[in-house]
Design brief:
Blueprint: E1 7-8, H1 14-23, H2 29-39, H3 54-63, E2 64-65, E3 71-76, E4 82-87, E5 93-101, E6 104-108, E7 112-114, H4 123-127, E8 129-132, H5 135-149, E9 162-165, H6 175-186, E10 198-202, H7 206-215, E11 219-223, H8 229-235, H9 244-257, E12 265-271, H10 279-288, E13 294-300, H11 314-326, E14 330-333, H12 358-363, H13 365-368
Parallel strand pairs: 1-2, 6-9, 9-10, 10-11, 11-12, 12-13, 13-14
Antiparallel strand pairs: 3-4, 4-5, 5-6, 7-8
Helix pairs in contact: 1-2, 5-6, 7-9, 10-11
The structure holds S-adenosyl-L-homocysteine (SAH) and iron/sulfur cluster (SF4).
């Protein structure tokens, strides 16, 4: 059997893997064994799965395989950040970023080849959109990064204890693949991450925030970027469909269902010099968020060649921060990491081929429903 007609087991969360082994006439516990080999020991060759009987090893290797996307390029930043460009087939590349910070490390994962939302300030958006990533390609990024860092503790590189779906793409347009991948991140037989340490970030796809809440409990981050609809629509075109009020209402519904958020959501706000960074806009933001339990993450704009927006001054960032603090909010200004290797927020471009046209992208049901 050629690899194309075989099944990549990285596409299966635990439940699906159990069904798969049962379909082979095997007992459920085989799924547990396979899952542990893949995600806890990094084993991809069935012949090395020593507690699995030989005939089953052979059967598995005839119909299935285990493969994460291959690394095409690795860039190391002076600050310890590592960016990998991974092969998504057909000449497409997706990017994954490892960000060590003190005794923790975060992995920033991509969910689509490019992005159709086309936010005014984002390099990924400027790249256009090609397709959704498969579950195997999403969890495969965590697997691949872990294999570089070491499945067994590595004194030089921190293990990944935090995953953010903040790489290329809009995760809520790819729920069918993103949710099983997040289930594997949380599963004790998988990467065993805490649900508070798996964060999905969205530009605000309202119906899918509700769907997400019915499917899984993880931390939610909303990319707001503006205190009012008029400005937000200019920055995030999706706001025409789902305005700020509809997003904040969906957030309230999500947070009431979720434990992972400890009752509050993260609001991301990219600060763009002279566009959305004035103290007056900070006050307006405080008013807009007055009834939304949240912590605010300020992200100074990271420049890139596809955008004429400018980084805000340190003074502007500090003033904006202080206004929100004075209104009683918890606020964090995100440190810029890995910008020397274009690995910072909004700088991920990968390689997106055969893009859908902009208008088609924005009106296509496939990407917007
Ligand atoms: N599509 C999702 C997740 C990926 S983007 C979303 O938009 O939420 C992750 C975060 O990076 C978002 O908050 C996004 O607005 C921000 N971002 C995009 N471009 C940026 C840039 N050039 N500088 C700083 N942050 C940026
Ligand atoms: Fe897409 Fe997020 Fe970039 Fe907007 S900010 S274009 S939603 S990746």
């Amino acid at each position: 059997m050629s690899e194309e007609s075989k099944i990549n087991l990285l596409n299966f969360d635990y439940e699906a893997l159990e069904k798969f082994v049962e379909s082979l006439g095997e007992k459920k516990f085989r799924a547990k064994q396979i899952m542990k080999w893949i995600y806890q020991f990094g084993v991809t060759d069935f012949a090395e799965m020593t507690n699995i009987k030989r005939d089953l090893q052979v059967k598995l290797s005839e119909i299935a395989y285990i493969k994460a996307p291959e690394i095409k390029v690795q860039n190391n930043s002076a600050d310890g950040t590592i960016k990998w460009a991974l092969d998504a087939g057909d000449g497409q590349l997706i990017e994954t970023v490892y960000i060590p910070d003190g005794d923790r490390a975060t992995l920033c994962v991509s969910t689509q080849v490019g992005c159709a939302v086309n936010c005014a300030f984002c390099a990924t958006g400027a790249q256009g959109y090609n397709r959704n990533l498969k579950t195997s390609e999403i969890i495969g990024q965590v697997w691949r990064a872990t294999s570089c860092i070491g499945f067994t503790p590595n004194p030089k590189l921190r293990a990944i204890d935090n995953v953010v779906l903040m790489g290329m793409g809009e995760p809520l347009f790819n729920l069918d693949n993103v949710v099983p991948a997040m289930k594997i991140m949380l599963d004790d037989l998988g990467f065993g991450l805490s649900k508070r340490r798996v964060t999905i970030s969205t530009a605000g796809v309202v119906p899918n925030i509700d769907k997400l809440g019915d499917m899984i409990d993880v931390a939610l981050a909303i990319s707001l970027h503006a205190p009012n609809d008029e400005l937000r629509t200019k920055l995030v075109p999706l706001n025409e469909r789902y305005n700020i009020k509809s997003i904040l209402d969906a957030v309230a519904r999500y947070v009431s269902k979720s434990n992972a958020n400890s009752g509050r959501v993260t609001i991301e706000y990219v600060l763009l010099a002279g566009v959305n960074d004035s103290p007056k806009q900070a006050k307006e933001l405080a008013k807009t968020l007055a009834n939304t339990p949240c912590k605010i993450n300020l992200i100074p704009f990271n420049p890139h060649q596809d955008s004429s927006f400018k980084k805000p001054s340190i003074e502007a960032v500090n003033k904006f921060y202080q206004v929100l603090i004075d209104h009683g909010f918890t606020v964090v200004t995100r440190k810029t990491r890995g910008d020397d290797i274009k690995a910072a927020c909004g700088q991920l471009v990968g390689e997106v081929k055969n893009k859908m046209k902009k208008i088609a992208r924005f009106t296509s049901n496939e990407v917007l429903e």
